Amino acid sequence: FQVMPFIEAGGHHHYHLTPQEIALMCASHSGTDEHLKVLSSIQTKTGVAETDLMCGTHPPYDKATAEDLIRRGEQPTPNRHNCSGKHTSMLAFARMNGEDLPTYLELDHPLQARILTCLSEISGASPDEIHLGVDGCSAPNFALSLYHSALAWARLADPDTAGLPPTRREACRTITAAMTAHPFMVGGPNRFDTQLMTLAGGKIVIKAGAEGYQGIGILPGALAPGSPGLGVALKITDGDGYGRARAAVSLEVLRQLGALSSEQLDALAEFGPRRPVKNWRKLDVGEMRPVFKLV
Fold first, then answer.
1. Which is nearest to 119 in space by CA: 98, 161, 145, 149?
2. pLDDT at 163
3. Which residues contact 50 (CB under 8 A, 6 or more apart)?
4. Quick check: helix, strand or coil at residue 134?
5. Is the dihedral of CA 90, 41, 28, 264 positive or negative?
6. Residue 235 φ/ψ region, left for φ over 0, alpha for ψ in the -120 to 50 degree band, beta for the rest
7. Three-class SS state of 231
8. Residues 6+ apart with CB under 8 A from 109
9. Is the separation of the CB atoms in 259 and 218 below 8 Å?
10. DSSP secondary structure string, 63-118?
11. pTM of the model
12. How far is it, in rounded angstroms, from Cα 73 to Cα 52?
């Protein structure tokens, strides 16, 4: 949703961006060398420098990549940050409009005003209902109800039935096509979002957020011929710090909706919805499982 105004304005055409590059702009990526290569291509095309990014730094999410950096004595840089694609898209949009780059994260920057307006319109929440904070990557962060979050995902997945303007409908299709065609760019090795979109074959778009948040868009026809698009938003109250609940709950929702086949669920079994609890001797001592029913 933060890249949507950029796509609506034709930024991807202006800079000749590929679907793979658009997918990385929608990512919380793992910071692998492959992600870095695609990000460097975006920055070359847009004239954005890594030093322009104000997302900060952290070790790559991908453990193997993080260990490689340590062995090489290399410190992670902003391009390894999981939000570097998003920040690059923001800077590219500001640059395209001739706007100030050093202040691109300020709430009163025209770029951030466009993003807030877009999110308000597609979610159905008024700007006053959207609470603003600061994300871990220092970008403006948005708190809105799960209802409005799910509505935004439903409209992203099925823009033709949402009464959206033509440019927004096309932007939604561009974003979902890019994410589902290049799920590795959105996440990375062994990431739930990447694995699910890979197996779903273009029928589901999904993106995790911090503190136990998950957004899911189920595209038209995914449940049955002629079925409408659906949006799902969930938030694990304790932030899901150990990563036990978000994927399991998401899979249980999709299972109950009939959005995944038994074969697809089997392929995703490491994420849930049922997972064994093992002790330090690797003995099975229990089971984690969702216990809700959709109504």
1. 149
2. 84
3. 43, 77, 78, 79
4. strand
5. positive
6. beta
7. strand
8. 94, 99, 100, 103
9. yes
10. HHHHHHHHHHT----GGGSTTHHHHHHHHHHHHHTT--STTTTSTTSHHHHHHHHH
11. 0.95
12. 24
Summarize pLDDT for 140-185 with one digit per residue, the tens.
999 999 999 999 999 999 999 878 999 999 999 999 999 999 999 9
Which residue, among 22, 31, 142, 133, has the nearest Cα to 76 in the 3D structure? 31
Rounded percentage of the chain residues whose pLDDT exceeds 70: 100
**17 Cβ contact partners less than 8 Å away, ≥ 6 residues apart:** 11, 42, 45
Question: What confidence score (pLDDT) does residue 161 get?
Answer: 84
Q: pLDDT (tens digit, 9 = 90+) per residue, 236-277?
A: 999 998 889 999 999 999 999 999 999 999 999 999 999 999
Question: Where on the phi/psi map is residue 264: left (φ > 0), alpha (ψ -120 to 50), or beta?
Answer: alpha
Tell me the residue ranges of DSSP E strands in the chain: 131-134, 140-143, 204-209, 213-218, 230-235, 275-278, 284-288
Quote the tokens at residue 174.
């561009």
At residue 75 the predicted structure's pLDDT band, cuts being 50, 70 and 90, is very high
- What the block records as the tokens of 227 is 């079925």
